[in-house]
Specification:
- With about 475 residues, the chain is mainly alpha-helical.
- About 65% of the residues lie in helices and about 0% in strands.
- It is built from 18 helices and four strands.
- It has helices at about 1-10, 20-25, 35-55, 65-85, 90-105, 110-135, 140-165, 185-205, 210-225, 230-250, 255-280, 290-300, 315-325, 330-335, 370-400, 405-420, 420-425, 435-450, and strands at about 305, 310, 340-345, 350.
- The chain has a two-stranded antiparallel sheet.
- Helix 5 runs antiparallel to helix 6 (about 110-135) and helix 15 runs antiparallel to helix 16 (about 405-420).
């Protein structure tokens, strides 16, 4: 039909629109590249191994799969830097932290094996970010695909949750999709990251679909695993996105839409969450607005669960600060890299647990802040905050170049998530949130690659190479 061909040529001047099947095949050709297959294997292993261990019941040795792929990514990162004679500044930061806090750990009597294990836990995913920064370049359509993948993965996990719920799994920490036993922390961190991507997409495009999808799926997931923190944290996160967006666009009409959708979400979600809280521990969401109850909740200590001591999120940094008062050096630099890490499988325990009043193995209420303070001291906390500021500055600088909408959406999402890192490490154990860390560092490495890539030269000013003059 010539009219059909003419119509397609009108849509795509000078060409004919390819067949839908051929277009789908050509859309993401980089999916066949080795770097994508390697990152996909890492992500799939992180997403499935916890489920294989629980509830399916595979042995702990299953974790070797993930560690092996991670080690391969790290080895390829170092190999790429050596062969290309290119060391990014991020690697210099890693080397500096390794040297300074490695010396501190050595003087604390830290074993080499425990130091290496702590180093691995800290720098594995930053190395994945460096791998992304160095290797993948700017594959066509990657940014848009990444946002869609985040939404699809969260939807998949919520479907798994619903199936588990229908099969009789009780609401709570174990109803966490493929994240396995007590997987609510990594699940929630992943949901927060996807929410940031949805909010970033809304900030750039003014389209509500991804934002509403991410926030709704996160709310459903949090109702099923009874995560109260999601609803308390998503409010300031959304408000931050709203302020940034209105401040740049000046469109107050968005205020009406934002408030209306927020009220609708409260009306729908709060009764559902209250019903699950009543089943789990006979409370309601409103109970956690009571200051006395909040203080009792976050300042809890000495509650024995599974042979570990449960320390409230509010008391964890206080306890860590008290332990840092041993001497000036400890207050400034902590107990060293890996000193607050441990591994049941390897039988390793960090030097920072020595003479601990709560014993060798205990849970600082699944929060990273207390452990971070003890490992790195005040200097480490200052470095951490400085890195947050530096990352945000680079992302804002990149946005001034007016990148493509999908890349700008990822950049805004990263700004939101990065700015809330102090909140994340206060409430959650980010070391267990492998999926979130994979998504964060891959996207950060990709965007920083775009930010630091030199602009293309104009054709007229390009220097001709010798073989081009022949």
């Amino acid at each position: 039909d010539m009219s059909d061909i003419a119509g397609r040529d009108h849509l795509y001047p000078g060409t004919m629109e390819p067949h839908a099947e051929d277009r789908a095949k050509a859309r993401y050709p980089w999916m066949k590249q080795w770097w994508f297959l390697l990152l996909a294997m890492l992500f799939i292993s992180e997403a499935t191994v916890p489920f294989l261990r629980w509830p399916i019941g595979m042995p702990k040795a299953t974790m070797v799969l993930t560690e092996g792929i991670s080690a391969l990514v790290a080895a390829l990162t170092f190999a790429f830097m050596l062969t290309k004679d290119r060391i990014p500044k991020g690697m210099l930061v890693i080397l500096g932290i390794t040297l300074v806090w490695g010396i501190v750990a050595f003087f604390e009597g830290q074993s080499l094996a425990m130091f290496l294990w702590g180093w691995w836990r800290l720098f594995l995913y930053p190395l994945v970010g460096l791998f992304t920064y160095l290797v993948i370049g700017d594959p066509k359509g990657f940014a848009g695909w990444f946002i869609k993948f985040c939404m699809g993965f969260l939807a998949f996990e919520v479907v798994v949750q619903i199936i588990m719920y229908l099969l009789g799994f009780p609401p709570g920490d174990d109803l966490a999709g493929t994240f396995g036993w007590h997987g609510v922390n990594p699940f929630t961190m992943m949901a927060f990251f996807v929410a940031c991507m949805g909010l970033g997409h809304w900030m750039v495009t003014n389209q509500l679909k991804y934002m509403l999808l991410a926030l709704s799926l996160g709310a459903i997931a949090s109702v099923l695993n009874v995560t109260k923190f999601y609803f308390f944290a998503i409010v300031p996160l959304s408000l931050t996105a709203f302020v940034l967006n209105v401040g740049q666009s000046g469109r107050l009409r968005k205020l009406i839409v934002f408030v209306s959708l927020s009220l609708l979400g409260v009306i729908v979600i709060v009764p559902m969450l209250d019903a699950q809280l009543a089943i789990k521990d006979n409370t309601t969401l409103q109970d956690y607005l009571d200051p006395d109850m909040v203080m009792r909740y976050i300042m809890t200590t000495k509650i024995n669960t599974n042979d570990a001591t449960y320390i409230g999120r509010g008391y964890a940094p206080i306890y860590s600060w008290e332990r840092l008062q041993r001497d000036t050096t400890t207050m400034l630099f902590g107990y060293g890299l890996g000193s607050r890490s441990s591994s049941d499988a390897l039988g390793l325990v960090g030097a920072g647990f020595r003479n601990d009043v709560f014993g060798t193995f205990y849970d600082i209420n699944s929060t990273t802040l207390g452990n971070w303070m003890l490992e790195y001291g005040l200097v480490g906390i200052g470095l951490f905050l400085g890195m947050i500021i530096w990352i945000d500055m680079q992302l804002f600088r990149y946005l001034k170049t007016k990148p493509e909408p999908d890349k700008a959406a990822i950049a805004y999402g990263l700004i939101l998530f990065t700015s809330f890192w102090p909140v994340w490490i206060w409430y959650h154990n980010v070391w267990s949130a492998q999926i979130m860390k994979a998504l964060y560092w891959i996207s950060l490495g990709y965007i920083l690659r775009q930010a630091f890539a030199p602009p293309p030269r104009p054709a007229s000013s390009r220097v001709r190479l010798p073989h081009e003059n022949r």
